[in-house]
Amino acid sequence: MPQNQPSAPVWGLRSDITPSFGARLVQEGCRLHFLPDRASLRGDFTAEQLHSLDITFPQFVKQLESALKSGALDPHQSRRYSTILNGLTCEADTNGSHGYVYLTIYPAE
């Protein structure tokens, strides 16, 4: 009888797009905190795409913090927020979670 193998958790917004990077950020007021153990890569990024992700991720976090301040992202309501930087698309939503922002980042087309 085959045993069920635990699968690695998929963090962030569920997305059929690969490659993608997903994460669940902890929200503290209008500040966001990244926890590496709440993030995952899906699919294969090129070395260039990974480099761009490393450079662009902090910029996305700053934009998401601004979106929380402006109300474009609402901790009490699910509302998708999207932005594009350096050839990468970031989609984020609180999913009405009162403390988390879920995001998926993938190459822009």
Automatic annotation (TrEMBL):
<dbReference type="InterPro" id="IPR038025">
    <property type="entry name" value="CbeA_sf"/>
</dbReference>
<protein>
    <submittedName>
        <fullName>Type IV toxin-antitoxin system YeeU family antitoxin</fullName>
    </submittedName>
</protein>
<dbReference type="InterPro" id="IPR009320">
    <property type="entry name" value="Antitoxin_CbeA"/>
</dbReference>
<dbReference type="Pfam" id="PF06154">
    <property type="entry name" value="CbeA_antitoxin"/>
</dbReference>
<dbReference type="GO" id="GO:0051495">
    <property type="term" value="P:positive regulation of cytoskeleton organization"/>
</dbReference>
